[in-house]
Design a protein that fits this description.
Strand content: under 5%
Radius of gyration: 19 Å
Shape: elongated
């Protein structure tokens, strides 16, 4: 197994990880930013106020994109498993 194969495996894993986690993280970031601006404007500094909307947004995002995320993971795993004989030989 040469270093090029290992670098390709790492790059594919990192790309898949970013592709799967980006929607959830960006939604949580956006909701947190909106709630933070509202808290600053109204001067309500309740810690739990930002938690519930973020949690709800993440659950909705996972419900809407969960099937796509699973398809991406299955595709990555399939490519990884089918390429194992090429790594050995």
């Amino acid at each position: 197994m040469n270093p090029d194969i290992i670098i390709d495996l790492g790059r594919d894993a990192a790309q898949t990880m970013i592709l799967i986690s980006a929607p959830v993280l960006l939604i949580a970031l956006g909701v947190g930013l909106v709630i933070g601006v509202l808290q600053a404007a109204t001067q309500v500094q309740e810690m739990t106020l930002s938690f519930i909307p973020k949690l709800f947004a993440i659950v909705v995002t996972l419900a809407l994109l969960g099937r796509w995320m699973m398809a991406v993971l299955v595709d990555y795993t399939h490519r990884l498993v089918t390429s194992i004989p090429g790594f050995i030989g």
